């Protein structure tokens, strides 16, 4: 039985994906199969009614829960899904139904400050929920479908611009991002406090420190099987042309902007500099997107004096430009099929300034234990964007469920989908 991503033939089943895709052919989206969305009993499909998603052959696709403005998601130890709602200011908890019924959705917390990132951990005898709000990181005690004992770990973090705070738990510490103030702002590197960073703080609120700079908007955060920290980064829109050739150096070249600069997935260690906005990821001659070097940004670092781009290392994996990765989770220890159980799932929100827009999608990248690195992306889910570039839905996060399905949030349709491989 085939449960891989795109390595299996679509054979005589339903037609492969239809319409014009904005994703490179190397991601394998043409091998996905258009699959009609069904609805769990009692769940209103809303904007997804009558729609299909493109998934691997044999997978089923279901509208599983109604959660308006659904953003990030995390499973609780007792098998419930907590979903943040950003601008709605709430946390919702989704309890799987019984007897063939759809899940029950209830509000877990209200009045929060644009809650986004979620993570769970255990501290002593307590299960802890970590929440990234707009200007602060908070923790709560979780038990039996309820939260209590709210505690502010850190407050007065920078807001505005890319203000969403994402979180991951690394042992006794919380890793979080502070996004850039704007699309392109060299001043973020010298601001007080510095912006466009990845930072770390103890669960008890002590030891706050910056781990990485030059991270324009590192919304995707997860801990790899080797214990290291990874981030998935939203790179520039409207990047000035950085090469000396027939195109105008430093000019607006739409054909270049459409596919550059690559969004980034890379390991973060103390002292990492991801280069933004002084160094631009360079994918020339790298169709697999692996180990991308950098070139000087023509506006902020044309002569290389602000930062030597040859000395900051490489980006482990480049995503298609304007993918806007948000969800990012390693899958080791999950109950997903073998083809998905040792790598990372990354969820792209899609972007606006490409022509046509980059479509939202979910992809998988395999983990290599020998090199302790991630491999080339292979697309897992598409179908949220119409051929004319309009969207009926927009994927945000995708997390493995305890039942071996992948659960995908959608903040445009306000839904959670359950995507299930063949058993």
From TrEMBL:
Residue span(s) of domain Pyrroloquinoline quinone-dependent pyranose dehydrogenase beta-propeller: 54-371
SUPFAM superfamilies: Soluble quinoprotein glucose dehydrogenase
Record-linked InterPro entries: 6-blade_b-propeller_TolB-like, Beta-prop_PDH, Quinoprot_gluc/sorb_DH_b-prop
This protein's name: Glucose/arabinose dehydrogenase, beta-propeller fold
Species, as recorded: Williamsia serinedens
């Amino acid at each position: 039985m085939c449960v891989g991503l795109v390595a299996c033939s679509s054979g005589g089943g339903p037609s492969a994906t239809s319409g014009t895709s904005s994703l490179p052919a190397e991601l394998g989206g043409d091998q996905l199969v258009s699959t009609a969305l069904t609805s769990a009993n009692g769940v209103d499909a809303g904007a997804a009614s009558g729609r299909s998603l493109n998934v691997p052959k044999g997978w089923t696709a279901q509208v599983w829960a109604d959660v308006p403005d659904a953003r990030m998601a995390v499973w609780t130890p007792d098998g419930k899904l907590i979903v943040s709602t950003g601008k709605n200011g709430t946390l919702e908890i989704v309890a799987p139904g019984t007897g063939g019924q759809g899940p029950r959705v209830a509000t877990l917390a209200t009045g929060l400050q644009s809650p986004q990132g979620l993570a769970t951990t255990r501290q002593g005898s307590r299960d802890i929920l970590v929440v990234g709000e707009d200007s602060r990181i908070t923790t709560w005690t979780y038990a039996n479908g309820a939260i209590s004992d709210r505690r502010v770990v850190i407050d007065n973090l920078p807001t505005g611009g890319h203000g969403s705070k994402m979180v991951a738990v690394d042992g006794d510490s919380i890793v979080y991002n502070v996004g850039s103030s704007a699309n392109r702002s060299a001043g973020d590197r010298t601001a007080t406090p510095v912006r466009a960073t990845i930072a770390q703080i103890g669960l008890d609120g002590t030891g706050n420190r910056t781990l990485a700079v030059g991270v324009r908007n590192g919304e995707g955060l997860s801990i790899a099987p080797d214990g290291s920290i990874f981030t998935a980064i939203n790179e520039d829109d409207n990047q000035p042309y950085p090469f000396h050739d027939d195109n105008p150096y430093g000019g607006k070249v739409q054909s270049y902007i459409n596919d550059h600069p690559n969004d980034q997935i890379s390991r973060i260690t103390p002292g990492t500099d991801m280069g933004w906005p002084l160094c631009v990821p360079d994918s020339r001659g790298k169709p697999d997107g692996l180990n991308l070097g950098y070139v000087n940004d023509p506006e902020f670092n044309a002569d290389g004096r602000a930062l030597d781009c040859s000395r900051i290392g490489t980006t482990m994996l480049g995503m298609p430009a304007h993918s806007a990765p948000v969800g990012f989770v390693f899958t080791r220890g999950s109950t997903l099929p073998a083809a998905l159980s040792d790598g990372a799932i990354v969820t792209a929100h899609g972007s606006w300034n490409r022509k046509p827009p980059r479509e939202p999608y979910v992809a998988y990248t395999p983990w290599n234990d020998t090199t302790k690195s991630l491999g080339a992306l292979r697309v897992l889910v598409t179908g949220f964007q119409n051929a004319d570039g309009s969207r009926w839905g927009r994927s945000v996060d995708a997390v493995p469920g305890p039942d071996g399905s992948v659960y995908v949030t959608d903040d445009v349709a306000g839904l959670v989908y359950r995507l299930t491989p063949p058993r």
